[in-house]
Amino acid sequence: MRWSIEGTAYPVIRIDLEEGEKVYAETGAMMMMKGNLKVDTIMIDLQQERSKVKAVLEAIGRKLLSGETIFHNVFEGPGTVWISPSLPGGIKYIESRGDCWIVQDYSYVAHYGDLDLDLAWKGPKGLVLGDLVWLKLCGEGGFWVSSYGDVIEVNVEDEMIIDNMHFVALPDNAQWEVVKFGNLRNFLLGGEGYVVKVRGPTKVYVQTRILPPLAAAIARFMPSKWSELLRLRL
């Protein structure tokens, strides 16, 4: 299997598959393809060694709690497929060598190999951050993540403070905790709120932009219910 990132500001993943090679992607992520690819839509949980009832419940749990799709499209070679992320930004490939990775739920794009997809519970930390789970990938293979903005790999030697909205992925064995940002003035007026403190040595992937400010900026130009009613009356 060969792959490459094509494009600049809004790139896509090109994956060249040999006979029998497979790649799994979110439904709707295929931009184009060529060759003699076989395409199927599956529930990944049912492909793993677990009971059907447990597999279905875990898939529904991922959908309800993290927004992750229940079904995935699997592309089997020979042929070429171009995968387009849902987020307008960068793409990063991460290799998994029998270990586990924690991934922001909306950042997952596609994967290959013998990887299990599961939920990573945040516990009380999730209540602070506003959501309860991340996505967890374990096993041998590789996966691609996307972000709003670019994706940067950061090597943490000792300790680093990361805004929780900028987090994309980190190893499951990394040490981290949620803390308030600075003093009370910073916390209330500084626009940061809670941050994630990561202790090294480890690596973490972060995104250079976050969606809430963009959504707020767009909302300013969206007509409100009251302005729409006034326009209709006029």
Automatic annotation (TrEMBL):
PANTHER family: ALTERED INHERITANCE OF MITOCHONDRIA PROTEIN 24, MITOCHONDRIAL (PTHR43657:SF1), TRYPTOPHAN RNA-BINDING ATTENUATOR PROTEIN-LIKE PROTEIN (PTHR43657). SUPFAM superfamilies: TRAP-like. It comes from Ignicoccus islandicus DSM 13165. This is TIGR00266 family protein. It comes from the Archaea. NCBIfam families: TIGR00266 family protein. Pfam families: AIM24. InterPro entries: AIM24, AIM24_sf, Trp_RNA-bd_attenuator-like_dom.
